Amino acid sequence: MSKQIQAIRGMNDCLPSQSGLWQYLENHLRHLMSQYGYQEIRMPIVESTDLFKRSIGEVTDIVEKEMYTFDDRNGDSLTLRPEGTACCVRAGNQHGLLYNQQQRLWYMGPMFRHERPQKGRYRQFHQFGVEVFGLNGPDIDAEIILLTARLWKQLGLSDHVILELNSLGSNEARARYKDALVEYLQAREDKLDDDCKRRMTSNPLRVLDSKNPDVQAAITDAPSLLDYLDDESAQHFSGLCERLDNLGIKYRVNSRLVRGLDYYNRTVFEWVTDSLGAQGTVCAGGRYDGLVEQLGGKATPAVGFAMGLERLVLMLEALELTSAVPKPVDIYITAMGESAELFAVNVAEQLRDQLPHLRVLSHCGGGNFKKQMKRADASGADIALLIGESEADSQQVTVKYLREEQAQISMTTAQLIEMLKTKK
Ligand code: ATP
Ligand code: MG
C-alpha cells in the first residue's frame, strides 16, 4: 500500500462534525454585518510580497519570520496573505473606492502565517475582518467596537471577553514617546531578550508587546504612551471612551497595548479572554490613518479589526455554547422496496417544497428495516418516516419519533406537512 499523504502541519481540515459550528458562526457574522449596513469585499489569497512588506512593517513577527513567500514561474515574489487589511487597502486603492468616500467593508477567509502550531495558533487560520474608510471621528471607532460587543452577546460570550483599549497618538507623539521608551529600555538592556534588544533600536514599541514574561516583568514601570498623546488624539480617545461608557461597554485602558503591526495610530483595541490559555486575543484592531497613503492612495482615514475564527470556535466549544448550532438532519426518510422508494422520494421533495427550512435526508442504498433505522438514528434526526410497500399503496407515511416517547402514527403527506408546520 502506498503511503498516505498528510495535510501540511498547522493547516487543518474542517470536518463535517465541525462545519456546522463554523457555519453557525459565519452566518452570525454575515447577519451582523447586514444589520449594520456593511458590505462584503473578497480579495485574492495571494498578493505581491511588497504589499505586506510596505504595510505591516519589516520589523514585525509577520514579515520577519511568518510569511509564506515564494517566487512564481515568472520570478515574481508572491506571498500567501498573512492578514486582510493590507489586501483590502490595496483593492480599495486599485478600484478607486477610498478617496473622498465612505466605505464600511468586511471580509472573511483564510490567512497564512508560518508560526509554531499550537492550540489557537495555526499556519492556515481564518479571520473575519472589518475595515472602514473615510471616517476619522471616535464615533466610528465606537461603532465597530459596538458591533463586536453585539456579536459576543449573540454568541453568549459577553461574560468571557474583555475589551482592552489604548491610543497610540499621532506619528509625532509616538516619535516623542519612542525616545523616552528607548532611554528607559537602554537602562534595562541586560534584562531584555535578544529579540527585544534588536527591536529596541529598530521598533521599540514592539518591546512592549513582547510575549516573554521576564521581559514583561522587567518593564512594568515603562513610560506610558497615554502621557505623550497630542491634544487631538487625547480628545479622540476621550471621545471614544465617553461613547463606550454611554453604550455600557466595559473596557480596560492598557497603555502597553501596541499591536504587532506597524500601521496603527490613535485607537488600538483587543478583545481578550482567559478561556483559551495563552492564545487569549480573539479580536484585535484599531485606527490606521496613514496606511492608504503609504500604499500609494490619497490620504484616507481608516479603522478596522480582525478576529480569529478558530479561537472563537474553541471558545464556543470550551464554554459549551453550541446548543444553538443547527443539527444536520431533522427528518430521515426510509424506504423498503421499489415502489416505496419512488413514493419516498416524492414525499421528500414535497417536504422540501413546502417546508424549505427543514433538513430532509433520504435513505439511499436499500437495506433492511433494521439497517435503515440504525442510520436514521445515527443521523441525529428527530423524526424518521417509515415507508414500505403498504405505505406506498395507501400513499401514507408512518411517522416514528426517534428522540421522544410517542407512539408512531400514519398519515398522508399533506397531513404530515400540516403537522410539521405547526411544530415549528
Ligand atoms: P498573536 O499576538 O496571538 O500572535 P497577532 O497580533 O499576531 O496575534 P493579529 O495579526 O492582530 O494577531 O490577528 C488578529 C487575530 O487573528 C488575533 O487576535 C487572533 O485571534 C487571530 N490570529 C492571529 N494569528 C493566528 C494564528 N496563527 N492562528 C489562529 N489565529 C490567529
Ligand atoms: Mg502573531
TrEMBL record:
Highest taxon of the source? Bacteria
Q: For the Aminoacyl-transfer RNA synthetases class-II family profile domain, which residue ranges apply?
A: 1-326
Single GO molecular function: histidine-tRNA ligase activity
Q: Name one GO biological process term.
A: histidyl-tRNA aminoacylation
The entry marks the following residues as binding L-histidine, namely 83-85, 113, 127, 131, 259, 263-264
Question: A Gene Ontology CC term for this entry?
Answer: cytoplasm
Q: Name one Pfam family in it.
A: HGTP_anticodon
First-tier enzyme category under EC: ligase
Report which reactions are catalysed by this protein.
Answer: tRNA(His) + L-histidine + ATP = L-histidyl-tRNA(His) + AMP + diphosphate + H(+)
Show the CDD domains listed in the entry.
Answer: HisRS-like_core (cd00773), HisRS_anticodon (cd00859)
Q: Write the record's keywords in alphabetical order, separated by commas.
A: Aminoacyl-tRNA synthetase, ATP-binding, Cytoplasm, Ligase, Nucleotide-binding, Protein biosynthesis
Record-listed E.C. numbers: 6.1.1.21
Subcellular localization, as worded in the UniProt entry: Cytoplasm
Q: Which InterPro entries match?
A: aa-tRNA-synth_II, aa-tRNA-synth_II/BPL/LPL, Anticodon-bd, Anticodon-bd_dom_sf, His-tRNA-ligase, HisRS-like_core, HisRS/HisZ, HisRS_anticodon
The family classification in the record reads: Belongs to the class-II aminoacyl-tRNA synthetase family.
Q: Assembly and interactions?
A: Homodimer.
Q: Which PANTHER family match?
A: HISTIDINE--TRNA LIGASE, MITOCHONDRIAL-RELATED, HISTIDYL-TRNA SYNTHETASE
Task: Supply the name of the protein.
Answer: Histidine--tRNA ligase
What is the organism field in this record? Neptunicella marina
